[in-house]
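subagent[fold] <- orchestrator: predict structure for attached chain, return tokens only, no commentary.
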Amino acid sequence: MDAIQVTNDEVVKVRKYFKVKEDDIKRDVKIIIEWIRQQQHLPDIDDENFIERCLLRNKFRVEQTKQKLDGYCTLRGVHLNMFEDWKSIIPSRELTTTLPLPKLTPNLERVIVWKLRSSDPNDYDIISIVKYNLLLFEVLIRNDYAVGDRFVADFTGHTAATIARNNPLIISKFLSLYQGAYSGRFVGCDFINAPPFINLLLSILKKLLPSKLYGRIRIHKDLKSFHKVVPKECLPRDYGGDLDTVENLIAKWDKVFEHNQPIFEKNLNMLSNENLRLGTNKDNSDMFGVAGTFKKLNLD
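subagent[fold] -> orchestrator:
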């Protein structure tokens, strides 16, 4: 897929990073498929490609992957409203840009740029933003092969009013879905073009995030500092890089979303049936810390 590129050599390097071999992966994929078949409350999931990438996002830990696959089917059902109206989402027309960059960094990380397209706080709809991002992660969990996600938050156009519109509950739901349902591996977040009032957002995030995750946020004063973390060959021209512009790169994601519409529709039905869950039913409203705080999540 042209929008996110992973070479065979990079796949080998990622596996080497996690100290796994292809035969080990094939064995563990079969173990998980068999486990899924034994779980009456889970739908059939026999896509080996999908399961391998879930293993990857969980550092090839089998038991953790089982938990996250359960979370994939359960949490998405709990927050089904977050997947409504998905057909209307077109990346190049959204009021925010969420753009996975095509090249992996030398550290084998996938860089994801996020920025506003409008400075009008009335245009800042965090629920729509979350829906857009969840569809994007539906694509990444099935196609990407990286050691983790590095987010770049570009605050150009942000005002105190737009930051104040961040709803902590919605952010918490998104984070629980990102980590608990999509096995997100957050390796860092780099703030660029941050305004003086960035402390307002930081205060919100500090209450929501575990200290380990919050400690991975960096604020860069200039692009020179930023390029020490993400090299120019992995960045768009907008950020002094060698790649195409953000506008042209995000346009490619329109076709990616269009191509994946059958998967988006099919996955709306890939939900758990809690009436069939063996043993004591979990309180899904509190699964992975969905209710209240994100701090129940185990991040590594």
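orchestrator: received. Logging for downstream: The chain has twelve helices and five strands. The first helix runs from residue 8 to 17.
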